[in-house]
Amino acid sequence: MSHENCLNCENVPFCNLFQKVDEFEGGELYVLTETINNHIIFPCTALVPLQCAWYMWDAAVDIITEKSHPDEFDPLILLSSQCFYDLKASAVLAFTAHYRNAIQILRPVFENILIGLYFNASLANAGKDDIQELSRRFEMWTEHSKPDIPDYEWLEVMGDDGTPKYKRRLDFKYITKFLRLRGTIDENLEERLSKLQGHLNQYIHINYSNLDVGMGDRCPDNPGVTRFDQDRYNEWIEPFQNIVDLLIISLIPYGVSNTPLGKDAIEGLKELKELDSEHEEQIIINPYLRETIKNLQI
Fold first, then answer.
1. Is the pLDDT of residue 258 over 90?
2. Residues 226, 21: contact at Cβ < 8 Å?
3. Burial of 224 (0-12, 13-18, 19+ CB in 10 A)
4. Helix (H, G, I), strand (E, B) or coil at 297
């Protein structure tokens, strides 16, 4: 078996990433290059907002470094750093027509943002002793995935519901109720988060209609290839842009808009919006991202 041209392997079809089966159906790299070269998909619709969010994240790190004491920590910044790796992976999967898998990756990204917001909201009005305790709890969560939620906090958020301490979880319901009580999110954002959570759950838990094989003739007969599907691509890009927008609006309060990196990010997003207005098909699919870009000021 020759290994001189692996990407076009003639011996193992699953290895032939450039094979063409039909129009926009074949190996992952064939689908990727054909859809981009024919201007059917535009990577900038996903990667420009992601790049700009990264600029904002980088600017936030600089601001924190300048203002913070060495023993302070920022869970949102730490956890959101992982989000960029996962979001880029999600985009690559979508560009190569692995839509279900691309959406599945978005769920832990969403959860990382929520966990970061939870710990940051806890830190917002904490005294020195409280910060040390929160640091211990965060370290415990990172090492064992156990939140160690204090009795007084659980009672404040959930009431006296009889839940044993060992069953307490930093799940979606708890975190959103906590964030509402702390004023971190309002009713509209809570509703948005709830809808996004429900949508992503459909791709994590068994839902036959969202399985590749549950889509009838929209699914290639051969699992060794992929097929471009505009509707499925849009099903991915909308929550992707939604989550990138959540990152952006979570980072703006750090004061990033007044930094060089933050200004570059805003300019990049504004340019994307201008391109969107000139294009026949919408580039910015998610309405929340569209509204955020509209309201951004340098």
1. yes
2. no
3. middle
4. coil
